Records
---
Amino acid sequence: MAELTLSRHVSGPSNAVPGLLLALAIAVASLGLSSLPQVTALGLGALTLAILFGMIIGNTFYAQLSTHCHPGVQFAKQYLLRLGIILYGFRLTFQQIADVGLSGVLIDVLTLSSTFLLACCLGRRVFGLDRDTVWLIGAGSSICGAAAILATEPVIKAEPSKVAVAIATVVIFGTLAIFIYPLLYPLVSAVWPAVSLTEWGVFTGSTMHEVAQVVAAGHAVSPETENAAVIAKMLRVMMLAPFLLLLSARIRSTASANGAATGKMTFPWFALIFIGVALFNSLHLLPPSVVSGINQLDNLLLAMAMAALGLTTHASALKRAGLKPLLMGLLLFIWLIVGGGTINLTIQHLLS
């Protein structure tokens, strides 16, 4: 089906132009606004703004444009998204793993796995949510916010409304974390004076949702905290690829156990390419200026994908989702602070 859809876009590229131009306009506006100091201080990145603007337009006058724009919007949501995730690998190097050390790796692995497993337990057994919503919120909370949700969507083939609900949870609680984490540090350091600024940075990077939010919260404490937070966060981002591979394997095994056909199951090849790009970037073969240009292009592609997602998300679908996803997101947020903090203290104590 995906191949047929792509062939339609390729055979008639002019059909995709209006929708791509609309997504591009929203993305450019979001990138411009996100660069303003006032917006940066709030930790609102271009991806968050793009989906917000997309939803506003999608629920107002987009109905009159959808006939002409739908092919391009769908193309942005599917194929530009995958390309954006692949190019995200140019933000990472395997040297970053060495920088955070074994303790940082263990902290990230334990925090990610415990948060996602808790999401599965809470979502299905406590709140009775559907599998896709649970997995999307779990991925966003445990890995890297909206980017993880967008990367998970093509693997599980989730509906746009469920993706939007999941993104809303990580945006709300990730934004709250920007203000809560800097206020927590003086309290925590008073109780545990041995917690250094660098260790607080690892805690910040291993438990907060979005990269932009991590930067804002770390910067509010100290430069040492910000640097350690970004490194820990980017290591967590690097775990997105193996997470998607494991998730895809889980879907295939479940389908096989239920007697369903597995031939059409989506394998996240873009996740493997993502790892390859990160490996290539670790060799530092490209000049920094070229890598910077690629990252700017990647920001644009991901913002266009988010804009397309917003354009196809209707407020009525979000209203039907109710409070349960937000309550689940809240409990995961509390776990990231309390449980993630416990994991950080335990690992740092054992390996110190």
---
Amino acid sequence: MDENATDGQPADDRPAGGATAAQPAPLSAGPPSPRPRTRRRRILRVAALLLALLLVPLLTAETALRLNYTGDPAPGTRTRHQDALWLGHAWVDGRKGDRDVEALADRLRGTGIRDLYVHSGPLEHDGTLPASAYPKARRLTAAVHRELPGVRVQAWLGDKLAGEGSDGLRLDRKATRSAVLASTRAVLAAGFQGVHFDLEPLHSGDHDYLDLLDDLRALTHARGAVLSVAAHQIDPLPAFHSFWGATTGHPKWWSQAYFGQVARRVDQIAVMSYDTMQPLQSLYGGYVAQQTSLALEVTPDGTCLLMGLPFYHENRFGHRARAETVPAAVRGVRLGLSRTDADRRAFGVALYVDFAATEADWRAYREGWAATPPTAS
């Protein structure tokens, strides 16, 4: 064997430079496998299908709301003089006095407002309410009765419920419900003519709330007082509160059946028909028309139904000031009333809230709802 051979290869067979000879090139493996591309296409198709499944119902619902905003309200669908106004805490803690009541009376004369919901809480988490929360209540009620005979003043009480967390008022506790009743007795004794409750977030189907309302109704009626509540919106689609609750943990809406159960237990029920997540006035107005119809269908004739008007101008998730306007809400209310129960007397609007209202809000309420149009000669 030649001593200059390498790896068993004769020296004269080596390439120049001493490198070993190149091995034969492997046979070509052919074109790349089509599997990765096919998989991507399949994923894109599934994603597009899921997006369509989400968007088609949404677009269908929004189109329906836009159509719901079309047409003309029926003649006479204006104030029945059953309207209400939410007032801030300054009216009972001493910051506002008789001159403020006089100015408020000037603004409200000639409108349809019959009830004032005056913030007098909030309740403590155990249901109690210190008298120090409403020290000027009797002075306020006396001034309102002097300046606005026939207008009732109700104590607006509320609190955060513990349904979505550990902190808050627990309606499942009998002691808490008993304390709420005692707080109600106290505010009625202070001169209020009714009590208006706003407890949130209140899930659809809450039977402890219904039990509390039964007890409150017996108490208020025994004293000749009014029981009213602020109500969540009604499912815009069947069982939507269940879907929304499962996906967000916060079921914003009530079922229509539960709304009816609440309405049958109170004298007044005011729908918080704002914070609707609608981006356009036409969609918001159509939404209010839908909510008005849904609420009318299950509210008994003996209960006064009030639809909330947004007298505030915030921009945040769920509320767009340019969309949720008073003119759109008023038109929506009139359209819903026209289509469902145009002659209903126990019906009105509720204005939220006095300290955020603008002159434009008041003008829209007066011109769109409170004013009686001239009759044709």
